[in-house]
Amino acid sequence: MSFIRLLLVFFLPPVAVYMQFGVGHYFWISVILTLLGFVPGLLYSLYIMAARPPGLSRLS
């Protein structure tokens, strides 16, 4: 995970997920969780960005 994306996770979690995965189900889940509460969106974004590497994961 790059430093810029890590910084974005703490300020705008959906934007960081978008930069890594594009507009897909990970992004929309992050948006919904962030709207419901900032902390759940933050935790989900950190988890999903650490667990799934960028690149070929966009194809799934």
What amount of the residues lies in strands? under 5%
Radius of gyration from CA coordinates = 10 Å
Major β-sheet annotation: none
Give the tally of β-strands: 0
Provide the helix percentage. over 70%
Summed up, the domain count is 1
N-to-C series of helices and strands: HHHH
* Structure class: mainly alpha
Give the CA-CA distance, first to last residue: 19 Å
Give the arrangement of secondary structure elements.
Elements (H helix, E strand, L loop, with lengths): L2 H9 L1 H9 L3 H12 L1 H14 L9
Helix pairs in contact: 1-2, 2-3, 2-4, 3-4
Summarize the structure.
With 60 residues, the chain is mainly alpha-helical. The chain has helices at residues 3-11, 13-21, 25-36, 38-51. Helix content is 73%, strand content 0%.
Structure report:
The chain is mainly alpha-helical. It has one domain (3-54). The chain has four helices and no strands. The protein has helices at residues 3-11, 13-21, 25-36, 38-51. The chain is globular. The chain crosses the membrane at residues 27-50. This is Stress induced hydrophobic peptide. Keywords: Membrane, Transmembrane, Transmembrane helix.
